[in-house]
Amino acid sequence: MADGPREKHSLEDLLAVMARLRDPDSGCPWDVKQSFATIAPYTIEEAYEVADAIAREDVEGLKDELGDLLLQVVYHAQMASEESRFQFADVVDAITRKMIRRHPHVFLDPSRREEFMSTDLWDRIKAEEKAERGGESSTSILGEVPVGLPALTRAVKLQKRMAKVGFDWPSLAPVLAKVDEELGELKAAMVEDGTESKTRVAEEFGDLLFVMANVARHLGIDPEAALRAANAKVVRRFGSIEAALAEEGRKPEDATLEEMDALWDVAKDAERKS
């Protein structure tokens, strides 16, 4: 698999590379000692790297990040193969069959397109698949929302599940009123004394975040994406502060809060004008 200037490697090459890295005799010691549990955090991280490249509209970076994410799939499949559980080909077969089955309006019967768009056909098919696998059905409609999701994303998914059975505010106004209520409860908890006060503050703060996720849902906003955008904005504006101070031969720790706040406003105004 010599890397020539125009040669493009195949999926088979990648699988071979992963197998070589995991070889107990001649592989990489770090890769050999990894497990599903130790690799899982990297899998999640790479998924976020993909999302980041998309948010930055970095198409070239997206190509690389998708490769990193694909490596994670190959990594897990290789470990499963070593334990004689399943092969990478089984992963491909499973997802292909799943997509065909879950889109009957595309692959089987075009007349079911309206049914797919206007009913819970997707969820019914998923339930059928789980029953066929012998999976136990949860006693709660919320039981199948993955615990490992980012908290804001999971909050929205929980709210959507509850909304399907009518447990939802009919409009945004009562949700905003709930925000005021939860904020008031947080403020009240913050002035309490006692060993349990910090616990209550954390609980009320969590309640406030949950309601804010509900606000995002009613507005049709992805709260995770909104927060990522806010984080990126902070990075940009603070970078402008650092650049402005560097022109004076200073660093942020050499400036006062008032000076940095003024530079923040300059960066903010510049963004608005552009």
Can you describe this structure?
There is one protein chain. Among the domains are: 11-102, Orthogonal Bundle (Helix Hairpins), CATH 1.10.287.1080; 225-273, no CATH class. Helices cover 71% and strands 0% of the residues. The chain is built from 13 helices and no strands. Helix 3 packs antiparallel against helix 4, helix 9 packs across helix 11 (197-219) and helix 10 (172-190) runs antiparallel to helix 11. The longest helix has 25 residues, at 223-247.
Strand content: under 5%
- Distance, first to last CA: 49 Å
> What is the residue-averaged pLDDT?
91
Main beta sheet strand tally, sense and closure:
none
The global form is extended
Count the strands? 0
SS-based structural class? mainly alpha
What is the level 1 CATH name of one domain?
Mainly Alpha
One letter per element, helices H and strands E, the order comes to HHHHHHHHHHHHH
Q: Which superfamily, in CATH terms, is the homologous superfamily of one domain? A: MazG-like
Examine the coordinates and then state which fold CATH places here, giving the name of the CATH topology of one domain. Helix Hairpins
Helical residue percent band: over 70%
Unreliable stretches (pLDDT < 50, length at least 5) are none
The CATH level-2 architecture of one domain is identified as Orthogonal Bundle
Give the C-alpha Rg: 25 Å
Number of helices, counting only DSSP H or I runs of 4 residues or more? 13
